[in-house]
Amino acid sequence: MRLQDKVAIVTGGGSGFGEGMAKLFAAEGAHVVVADINEEAAKRVASETGHGAIAVKADVSVNAEVKAMVEAAVSAFGRLDVMVNNAGYTHRNGPMLEVDEATFDRVYAVNVKSIYLAAQHAVPVFRRQGGGMILNIASTAGVRPRPGLAWYNGSKGAAITLTKSMAVELAPEKIRVCAINPVAGETGMLHLFMGEDTPEKRAQFRASVPLGRLSQPRDIANAALFLCSDEAEFLTGVCLEVDGGRCI
Predict the structure, then answer these.
(1) Does 2 map to a domain?
(2) Does residue 237 belong to any structural domain of this protein?
(3) Which domain CATH number covers 171?
């Protein structure tokens, strides 16, 4: 049990990578708060996750809802050990000037502001406890950008830089901060990354990955489990590509 009795919040936990992390964390002994803007999805995953997992409805771009999310974890389980900022948003693949302002704002609110808000509420808890772990789910888009996703790429570049900045500032307080950079995966946003979900587009995306496939939630969950476990206690500021070689 690599996360025995640790308490973890997983945002965007109602599907995709978040669901994979929530279920694996619980299987490894963690008490999990499944947070999602889709309350029914969060409840479904929590019910399937077991080990006392609870569901919380939360828009990660709204300060009051992030505050309530962290408070729910502490109220239910008495502490918080792991904060996984997984919830994400993107614009459809296409010319950069065709992305409207509202969509741009939403991408940065969900992908970047959420990290700020989570820190505002989780870090004080970690400080009281003497340590903690923040895991940001960024993207290979922030390392090796694809055309047509300019603003999304930029948001994930910000997540990577924030991870390193937070890590060096919080290290003296035994608060670790790492990131995972997944390649495009089998999630609900895949059709937006590709522009359209067709066999031809999928083949094109797979061809850009040396290991020959897209990522799966289990790939991300396995990496997250290691980074959030005590086995990784000397790792901070690490931004790990889980990408089948895409960024080589």
Answers:
(1) no
(2) yes
(3) 3.40.50.720
Q: Of 89, 108, 116, 152, which residue is the catalytic one?
A: 152
DSSP per-residue codes, the chain: -TTTT-EEEEETTTSHHHHHHHHHHHHTT-EEEEEESSHHHHHHHHHHH-TT-EEEE--TT-HHHHHHHHHHHHHHHS---EEEE-----PPSS-GGGS-HHHHHHHHIIIIIHHHHHHHHHHHHHHHHT-EEEEEE--GGGTSPPTT-HHHHHHHHHHHHHHHHHHHHHGGGTEEEEEEEEPSBSSTTHHHHHSS--HHHHHHHHHTSTTSS-B-HHHHHHHHHHHHSGGGTT--S-EEEESTTTT-
Q: How far is CA 210 from CA 82, 197, 207, in A?
A: 32, 21, 7
Query: For the chain, what is the mean pLDDT?
Result: 95
Q: Determine whether 152 is an active site residue.
A: yes
Nearest by Cα to 21 from 174, 242, 190: 242
146 within a domain of the structure (yes/no): yes
Structural domain that includes position 133: 7-241
Token digits for 184? 């495009």
Does some domain include residue 248?
Answer: no
Residue 51 pLDDT exceeds 80 = yes
Is the CB of residue 239 less than 8 Å from the CB of residue 138? yes
The number of folded domains in the chain is 1
The reported pLDDT for the residue numbered 18 is 98
Residue 204: band (very low, low, confident or very high) from pLDDT cuts 50, 70, 90 = confident
Closest CA relative to residue 112, chosen from 173, 71, 153: 153
Q: Please give the single-letter amino acid code of residue 96.
A: M
